[in-house]
Amino acid sequence: MTEDSRPLAVFDLDGTLADTAHRQRFLERKPRDWGAFFAAAPEDPPLAEGVALALESAQECEVVYLTGRPERCRKDTVAWLAAQGLPEGRIWMRRNDDRRPARRTKLEILQKIAQKRAVRVLVDDDELVCDEAERAGFKVVRARWASTSAALKDAQEREGRT
């Protein structure tokens, strides 16, 4: 089986592979400090459950990443994934000026991905993203292993920032 014929396992980053708890404080203040929130991402501890699932998925699938992080975070994101020993894979990121809710941007990208490759699973912590993906016919694993933040959930839905 060639690399291009393997199904894809699509992983979210924040709250799925990366523990963002240490940087939530930047979203709990008014106004939210998005610059500081994303600048602190390289210090995210890995979430063991998500990392283990990605490594396990890599045995049968090509692991790729679909994140709400803006494109300007690409260099830090690539370095963080490598530092955690996660599989190399394509990373789809939000355009820097895209403020649509994550459930819309991620589903749009997921559907484009699925036009060219079989998507075996989406792993994400955002319940609204998971709901939309399931409604569209994708198999979903809900990453419920990280602590949740009301500020982050609000930001994902209302401000389209991650």
Folded structure, characterized:
- This protein has six helices and five strands; from the N terminus they run βααβαβαβαβα.
- The protein has a five-stranded parallel beta sheet.
- The mean pLDDT is 90.
At a glance:
This protein is α/β, with parallel strands linked by helices and 162 residues long. The protein has helices at 34-39, 48-57, 74-83, 102-116, 127-135, 150-159, and strands at residues 8-11, 62-70, 91-94, 119-124, 140-142. The chain has a 5-stranded parallel sheet.
List the helices and strands and how they pair.
Elements: E1 8-11, H1 34-39, H2 48-57, E2 62-70, H3 74-83, E3 91-94, H4 102-116, E4 119-124, H5 127-135, E5 140-142, H6 150-159
Parallel strand pairs: 1-2, 1-4, 2-3, 4-5
Helix pairs in contact: 4-5
Average the pLDDT over all residues and give the rounded result.
Answer: 90
N-to-C terminal Cα separation, in Å? Answer: 35 Å
- Widest sheet: strand ordering: 3-2-1-4-5
Parts with pLDDT < 50 across at least 5 consecutive residues: none
Topology as H/E string?
EHHEHEHEHEH
Question: What spatial form do the alpha-carbon principal axes imply?
Answer: globular
Q: What level of helicity do the residues show?
A: 25-40%
Q: Taking Cα atoms only, what radius of gyration do you get, to the nearest Å?
A: 15 Å
* Strand-pairing-aware structural class: alpha/beta
Question: What's the number of helices?
Answer: 6
